[in-house]
Predict the structure.
Amino acid sequence: MIHTADTPHTDKTDPAHRFLLVWRNPDTGRSQCVGHVAADEDSWQLHYTATAATHPIPGFTGLRQFPNTRATYHGTGLFPFIKQHTMHRGKLDYDEAIRELGLDPSTATAVDEIIRSTGRRLTSPFFLVEQPVEHRGRLRGHFLLSGVDRIPQEEIHLETTPVRVGRSLHERTLTSIKPHDRLFVLPEVRDEKQRQPLLVCANHNGTTVPVGRIPDYLVPPFHNLIEKTGDAKVFAHHVNSPGTVSHLRVLMLLDTPAPPCNPFEGL
């Protein structure tokens, strides 16, 4: 059952997991947060961001099932988007695909799967990213490392002199990363008038090697977090083999001291 309301729905049994609804502009390739979803296996809630609700975004029309960007939607059961963007247990390759996400096929839920995969589909511009939340003084949340395939193809502006990361060094570094390894978020020096893209780097035999980037839709809150706390501690949570599609290669975990205000809630 689906309901709509003009104000956020509150309930003693509000869903436990928080997600950012991200929309990828098919014309520009840029992604931005356009909504917030709370969901578990039994209930869900969706509301769009203030920007999406009050400022027209070229090309953006909202989810087909939930087109009113000023409404708050909520319902029981599994959030329809998650149901549509996760795998059916009956698929022949289900177990293999779930293990590739670092999950146990016998216990993994659809919500577990969406946290690990984001539910990206070639047929849809939308996907879900776990929203970092505060728990016992720590800000924690998972995200997929972005731009893994592009790092060896581009000049990297890690310091004042642009450098290139060779494909061999990049792959050796990725292969050496183990779960729980600390990685480092560093600004990529480009246009000083704008907030810089953020590189994610690993220490490989004493050398700082860029392996990917913070996704563009998470760059503003990461900058905010770094400005408030001086750091954003990130760790490798699950690392896939070289044959995996690049956007699933490394699942990251943000686990860092929480600032007074969660910058990811203001997207």
User: Anything to note?
Assistant: The helical segments are 50-54, 80-84, 94-100, 110-117, 167-176, 219-229. The first helix runs from residue 50 to 54. Residues 5-14 have pLDDT under 50 and may be disordered.
